[in-house]
Design a protein that fits this description.
22% of the residues lie in helices and 34% in strands. The chain has a single domain, classed as 2-Layer Sandwich (60s Ribosomal Protein L30, Chain: A). The longest helix is centred in the middle third of the chain and has 18 residues. The protein is globular, with a radius of gyration of 15 Å. A five-stranded mixed β-sheet has the order 2-6-5-7-4. Strands 1-3 form a two-stranded antiparallel ribbon. Helix 1 runs parallel beside helix 2. By secondary structure, the chain is of the alpha/beta class.
Length: 134
């Protein structure tokens, strides 16, 4: 199990504050874990559901599995990049994420894209993460 590194959330008073994310994250020392894009796929390779919320919940569950495999948690994550298929509600996605992920802000980028994965596969979200481990 890796202890949590010294992670400082940077939110200057001169910038907008949002409880869902940090403007920057300072991670001091340690090893870095890069988690490749996680979708809403179950272990058997099927999608958790055809709706955005189900896929977001599963994608975050998959991230937690990768973190857990090295003794880390969402508290070790310093950066997320979230790719969302056009037409999906980001508010619905954040609500679904909090069910699984909890309230652990990180530096975050959200991009709306034309499509994800194989065309016609129905993938609505993909999440990458960077975590710092001691």
């Amino acid at each position: 199990m890796f202890p949590i590194m010294k992670i400082t959330h940077i939110n200057p008073d001169t910038l907008h504050k949002n409880p869902a994310f940090s403007q920057g994250v300072l991670a001091e020392g340690g090893k870095t874990l890069y988690i490749g894009g996680q979708n809403g796929f179950l272990k058997d390779g099927s999608l958790a559901g055809g709706d955005f919320a189900s896929q977001v919940e599963q994608a975050y569950g998959n991230l937690l599995e990768v973190l857990s495999s090295v003794g880390a948690t969402q508290e070790n994550v310093v950066k997320q990049t979230i790719y969302v298929a056009k037409g999906q509600s980001i508010q619905e996605g954040f609500a679904a994420a909090q069910k699984v992920w909890g309230n652990f802000p990180t530096a975050i980028s959200v991009l709306f894209v034309e499509g994800l994965g194989m065309p016609g596969a129905g993938v609505l979200v993909e999440i990458e993460a960077i975590a710092v481990l001691d």
